[in-house]
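ARCHIVE CARD
CATEGORY: sequence design from structure
SOURCE FIELD: tokenized fold
FIELD CONTENT:
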């Protein structure tokens, strides 16, 4: 039924379309924003037909397509394998982006594809690999598919079955985190499987265009890329700090065990994958604070990860460093650089605007949840976990729980968070400006 309904609507739209195929910025923002919303609505049909409440079905579907990983399912393994497969597959589709998929397979878009790419692409800069945007989209999807195939083979070699291997590949490469197992990755109790997942979470959190350059253009691109080096620094630093806090507080007796859980959850939260091998709600406040800070950062631009993005944080730090120097030497001219490129001031303005709007949306959704009687830690973590497309938060929405206890209105707020966060704030919020709709 879901297939018939979706196909019928698609055919009607195809044969009634009179568009010339050339879009202005306004049309591009609308298409991208409503394409994701429409995908989530049609993707909710299998969940709806399985007996879910309409809002719950939309929540689960939006969480899937935005690769968030927040769930309202209370007994996951009681659902059919087909539904759980669909739940993981839509994360894989959403991970690289529905519009990117369209650009890769629909040459009809032509020049108009550039506006769609800009409206959807994660991060503050447009990272083209080829002069034609359709070729760039195909390359990125090729990298995405190849990495997926490699991870699937690795998981099979580590002892996973075909079904588990495929579904967990979908949700790792997409930085999604859905699992057909109630205990997520902990269900396998395998350090080898955890190691494979850790490696591919790290890879998925890096720029996919960088992976292509490393393989086909310049093997040294990895070491030259400022964002990748800062991303690696954050991972290593956070993992070491978390390891020490877990060990010194007696959460785990052995430092090796502390590192095993630390590195897994640092990458899971930073990249927005949201897997769990331990209930970190039981960890001390110092350890949970490390994870909470990582929720805001996110992965690299051009990756499947959510959050503010590493490159934005890096550029804001560079800007702050420059302003400190200018306070001592007001006449100093010191451009902000990202590698060898000088970052224009309008890009910096865009980054700060993004950051302010991101925090504003986070605070607004937290306030609304608090008005519904949700305690503060759960409200704060639910807001950032959905806006940053992470998945689980703390307390009421922690890794051993889910979002089913959130009131219906609260779920609608969090659905909006996932949508806004996945489309990098501007794409959705610009639709709320009255002047946007005027000729």
């Amino acid at each position: 039924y879901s297939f018939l309904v979706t196909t019928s609507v698609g055919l009607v739209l195809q044969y009634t379309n009179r568009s010339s195929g050339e879009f202005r910025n306004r049309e591009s923002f609308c298409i991208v924003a409503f394409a994701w919303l429409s995908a989530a609505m049609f993707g909710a049909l299998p969940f709806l037909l399985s007996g879910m409440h309409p809002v719950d079905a939309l929540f689960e579907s939006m969480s899937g397509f935005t690769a968030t990983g927040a769930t309202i399912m209370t007994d996951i393994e009681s659902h059919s394998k087909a539904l759980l497969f669909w739940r993981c597959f839509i994360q894989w589709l959403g991970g690289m982006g529905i519009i990117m998929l369209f650009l890769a397979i629909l040459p009809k878009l032509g020049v108009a594809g550039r506006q769609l790419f800009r409206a959807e692409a994660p991060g503050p800069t447009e990272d083209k690999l080829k002069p034609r945007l359709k070729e760039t989209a195909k390359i990125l999807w090729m990298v995405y598919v190849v990495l997926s195939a490699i991870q699937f083979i690795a998981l099979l070699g580590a002892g996973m079955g075909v079904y588990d291997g495929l579904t967990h590949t979908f949700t790792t490469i997409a930085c999604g985190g859905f699992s057909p197992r109630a205990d997520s990755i902990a269900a396998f109790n395998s350090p080898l499987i955890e190691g494979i997942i850790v490696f591919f979470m790290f890879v998925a959190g890096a720029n996919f265009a960088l992976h292509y350059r490393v393989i086909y253009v310049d093997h040294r691109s990895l070491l030259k890329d400022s964002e990748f080096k800062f991303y690696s620094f954050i991972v290593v630093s956070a993992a070491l700090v978390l390891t020490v806090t877990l060990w010194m507080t007696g959460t785990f007796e052995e430092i090796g065990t502390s590192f095993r859980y630390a590195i897994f959850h640092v990458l899971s939260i930073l990249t927005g994958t949201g897997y769990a091998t331990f209930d970190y709600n039981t960890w001390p406040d110092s350890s949970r604070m490390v994870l909470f800070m990582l929720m805001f950062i996110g992965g690299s631009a051009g990756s499947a990860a959510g959050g503010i993005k590493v490159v934005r944080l890096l550029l804001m730090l560079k800007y702050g460093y420059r302003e400190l120097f200018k306070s001592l030497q007001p006449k100093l001219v010191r451009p902000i650089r990202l590698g060898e490129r000088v970052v224009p001031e309008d890009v910096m303005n865009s980054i700060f605007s993004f950051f302010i709007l991101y925090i504003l949306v986070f605070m607004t959704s937290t306030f609304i949840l608090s008005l519904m009687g949700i305690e503060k830690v759960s409200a704060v973590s639910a807001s950032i976990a959905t806006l940053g497309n992470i998945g689980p938060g703390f307390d009421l929405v922690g890794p051993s729980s889910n979002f089913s206890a959130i009131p219906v209105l609260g779920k609608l707020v969090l659905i909006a968070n996932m949508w806004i966060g996945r489309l990098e704030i501007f794409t959705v919020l610009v639709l709320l400006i009255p002047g946007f709709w005027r000729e």
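CARD ANNOTATION: The first helix runs from residue 2 to 16. Residues 343-437 form one domain.
SHELF: design records, drawer C
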